[in-house]
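call fold(seq) -> C-alpha cells
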Amino acid sequence: MRTVGVEEELLLVDPETGEPRAMSAAVLARAEREDSGQDVFEKELHEQMVEFATHPQSSMERLLAEIARCRKEAAGHAEEIGCTVAALATSPLPVSPAVGMNERYRWMEEQYGIATREQLVLGCHVHVSVESDEEGVAVLDRLRPWLSVLTALSANSPFWQGKDSGYASYRSRVWQRWPSAGPTELFGSPERYHRRVADMVATGVILDEGMIYFDARLSQRYPTVEVRVSDVALHAETAGLVATLTRALVETAAREWREGREPLDPGVSLLRLAAWQAARSGLTGELLHPETMRRMPAEAVVRALLDHTADALADHGDLDRAREGCERLLRDGNGAMIQRALLDRTDSLRDVVTECVRHTQA
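ret:
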C-alpha cells in the first residue's frame, strides 16, 4: 500500500488579538529543545509561520492522528512563548510579513520583490510514494485535471489584508505569483521531466530545483509525488481527507498508466481556468469538470472525483471515509465557508481568528 506524508504550514498569531506574530525562530528553538528525535518542525519563508511534516503512513487513521498530534505540539510550543497557531491559509487581519533572515530567503526577496514580501500564504503538501521516476511522471501526467477539485475542497483563505478577497482560496492566487508555479504540460517520460526542470534552473530566474513550484512534482528528497495545490485546512479531518483523495488519485493514475490508458490533455490554458474557478468558488458555486472542462455544480464535480477514484479508495479501505468526509464538507462547509459564517455572526475578523485557533486544535 502506498504511504502518505503531509506537510502543513500554520500561522502564528496572538491568542488575544488574532494578529500574526513573527515568532517562528523562538517557536522552533523551543521545539528543538523539547524534540524527542522526531524533528518534525521546520522554518518557512516568513517569521509568522511554522511548518511540520508527518512521517510516511500507510494507515489513514495513523496519519490523521499524527496530523492532530503535530498541531497540538505546535500549539504547545507556541503558547510557551506567548503566541499560538491557527490553520488559516491567509491572515484575515492586516499583516506586514517578515521575511526570514537566511541567505535563500534574502535572495528570493531581492529577486522577486513585493511578490516575496506578500507571500504569507499557508498550504498543505501531500507526498504519496511511487515506485520509480517513470511511474511518478506517468502519475503527474494523469493527475493534472483533478487537482483543482482538491483546491476547492480545502479552500480556507477568503480574507486578505482585512478584507474579503472574493475568493474561497485566495492563497492559491497569491501562490501563482511565483514564476514556476502552476499546472504543467504533459511530460511523457522522466527524461523530459528532468530536462525541463534543468532548463528552468539554467535560466537563472529561479534559484534551484527547490523552487520548482509545479502543482504536482517529483520530490527532491523522497521517492514520492508531491501534490501542492491545497490550502492548509482548518480541521485536521479535512487534511486527512485531502491526503486520502490524493493517494487514491495517485493510485488511479498509476493503474491507468499500467493499463496503457493515455492521459487526458485539456492543455495548460484550461487547467489554469479550472484552478482559477476552484479558487474563486470553492464548494459554493460551480467548478470545471475535469473530464469535460465545462462548468458543473461543485457537488457534482466532487462526486465525479469520488467515482474516478472509487476502486483505489475501496482497495485501500478508504471509500466510506472519503465519501463521509466529502459529504461533511458539502453539508457543513470547508474552511472558507466557516470563516465567512463566523464573520457574519461576530462582525469581527479578530473573533474569526481566535475562533479558528480553537478549530485548529479541535
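The chain has one domain: 4-360.
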